[in-house]
Structure formats: C-alpha cells, structure tokens
Amino acid sequence: MTRRPEADYDVIVIGGGAGGVGAALGAAKAGAKVCLVEKYGFLGGAATNAQVLAYCGFFQQGGEPRQAVAGAGEQVLEALRGLGVKAQPYHSETTGNWIVLLDPERLKVALDRLCAAHGVDVMLHTRLAAVARTGNRLEAATLAGMDGRSRIAGEAFVDASGDANLALVAGLDFRVGDEERRLQAATMPVRIGGLDPDLKIDRNAIKAAVDTYNERAEFKINRSDGGIYTRVPGSSDFWWLVIDREMADLGSRTFTRAEQSGREMALLLVDVLREKVPGFERAWLAQTGPQIGVRESRHPAARYEITYDDVVGGRQREDGVARAAWPIELHKEAGKPFYQSIGADGFFHVPLDAVTARGLDNLWYAGRVVGADSLAYGSIRVMGTAFATGEAAGTAAALAAEAGKAPDAATVRARLIENGAMI
C-alpha cells in the first residue's frame, strides 16, 4: 500500500455503526491502514445507541431464511456467537421478515475485538469537525475529541456517519428527507425488566394496554397491532418497538421534543403494563436510548441513486458490489409502517456508483448514506445491508489508496468475493 508521506492513514472512516464497521473491516482486509472515528464511547450504531436490537437485511423474505449478507457482516455474527449469542435467523410474527436478535453489550465487545484483530485504529468519543479539501479530493479531517482538536490526513475516506456529516462539511449537495423534504418518523424502542422468563406474552393483552395508554396519554401511539416485541437474548427482558415520533425537520429543538416526549411515553406505558397485563406486575423500565432511533436525515449526492424500480424489480447488475434484501419499509406516518417486497430473486444489487460520492474523487458512502431515491432508501438503510455496502465502500477506498485512482466495479467485486462477501 503506497501512502503519501503526509498521510496518516490509507482510509479514514467516519461513523462506527454497521456501515462504518463494515467499511473499516473491508478496507483492512484489502490491506489498508484504517482509522475508524465514532462519536459515542462504543461502536454499533443504532444497535447500541438506539436499542434497535435486531439486525435486518441479513436474510431474504420467504418461508425459509436465505442469506443475503456474508463477508464482514458474517464476521460480526460469528464474533457474537463466540460470545454466547445465537445470532441465528428469527422469524418476526409481526412483519414476516427474518431478523437476527442482538445483545447490545456483547455486540459492543464483539466489534471492539474484531476491529482490534484487523488492526483498525478506533477513535471513540471523537467527532468530525472539518475537512481539508483540494479540488475534487479530500486531504484530511479535523477531529474533536476529549483532548481537543487534532488533524489526520488520509488517501481515501468513507462517510458512514448516517447523517452524512462528512459529505456535509465537505460541501457536497444533499437532499433532506424525501423529494418533498419529509422525514420518516423516529422510533424509541424500550427495554423492560422484571418479567418471569417463562411468561408467554398475550398480544391481545398488549394491544388492550396500548388502548388504555392512549386514553390517558398526551402523546398517542398509532401502532394498532401492539408493535414489534421480543425477549432480549440472554435475559428475560422485554424489548418493545411501539413509540414513534414525527420529525418535522433536523433541528435540535425537534430532536429534543422527540426525545423528551418519547421518555414520557415509555414511563406511562410501563405503568399501564403493570396494571393491565398479566405477568407484568413487577415490570420496570430498564432502558430507553441512549438516543431515539433516527431513520433518516441527509442524502448526499452519489454517482447513482438506486430507484424504486431497481428494488421492486430485483435488479441484478454487473457493477453490483453488495446485495440488498430487506423489503421497502417506510415510516412516513408515525406508527404506520408500509412494506413492499423485492421482486425477482428476492434481492437487488447496490452498484458501485451508489456508494461513490458525486463531486469528490476519494469519498465513498456506507449504510444509510448510500445513494437511493426516497422509496429505495426504505430498503437499503437497514443494518444488515449496511455491513454489505460498508464493506464495498471500504474495499473501494482501500483499492483507490493503493492504486492512486478509483477502482472499477469488476476490481472491487473480485476483491470482495475473495474476502468472503456475497454478491
């Protein structure tokens, strides 16, 4: 790997969620010296910072689970299994999709160990503050950490921030929300303790409790089916996805109101469960957050936007560098998700141009930053798919750092397949 004398790293990845971890592992496996920057004190993204305790997108829809993501994503599942988490496909009774249930604390350790094993330099408690740009290339990132500001230079960069923070400070064009600037609702999952591990939960009783809650509450719940719930692996805790909040914009006050109202809703919900649902008499609110689950923010300009037709047609293509298998899932109205299945073989390809920035020659995208129209975005944003797009972005960035120019799709595909990815 050839690196400019002034460059500290071959690849700098901003964001330590599924996309960022996938990018860091992909780049490291391709031979790059990698820095992974994360604002929280742990990796994992929504799985660890928003209690989204299920990986979606590892498997296709259908009567039996069919794997769609391998490579870096499968390495994460193997690491979880090594820590005692089953990490096997679980069929959701509510949606009919196949998911992987998670233990967030073991996941944090698994990701730490994986990054260390691949020589990734992880910087936690660190935010991106600014970038240095020369023409169509990024040169360096200014980071704000616990010890103040520092500057690191790199040959190639991956924006896996979820909110397109790197693209934003680099001055790229972006869309907020859908084509009409509407944002999908945010969700605050809750974790509830105090249940008997053998308790069989009655969905009708849960639905009735939600009705009682809505009679008493200022902030209403719109999920008439009782929401999505399961037990947290390795515990008797009850995980419940039922609180949704409308997001009018990306302003701090909007996020503050969503966070505060979500916590109020969670407290009252648990009170109602204790009163109304058999087996919940000793229930207590174990956790919300650390933050509300954000589905959508900025969409930076990519060289290609995956379209609705690509998804529903199950489009497969020679320049594809990742599989996406989660159905279109949209939350334009809080508490009323909309699903649409993928056609043809049940997956579609994410092309290299969709993970490549438009306007910068050495920036790639991972996770929910990937180029997609507002409908296709409902499919590509999930964490299982993010591992795949992240690994593709990190591999492309590493190959670009090595060759001094952006690689073509065939070269990226070949390296991904060599390193165990499923395309």
UniProtKB/TrEMBL annotation:
The UniProt record lists the keyword Oxidoreductase: yes
Lineage, highest ranks first: Bacteria, Pseudomonadati, Pseudomonadota, Alphaproteobacteria, Hyphomicrobiales
Protein name: FAD-dependent oxidoreductase
A molecular function (GO) term: oxidoreductase activity
PANTHER family: COB--COM HETERODISULFIDE REDUCTASE IRON-SULFUR SUBUNIT A (PTHR43498:SF1), FERREDOXIN:COB-COM HETERODISULFIDE REDUCTASE SUBUNIT A (PTHR43498)
Keywords: 4Fe-4S, Iron, Iron-sulfur, Metal-binding, Oxidoreductase
Pfam families: FAD_oxidored
The UniProt record lists the keyword Oxidoreductase: yes
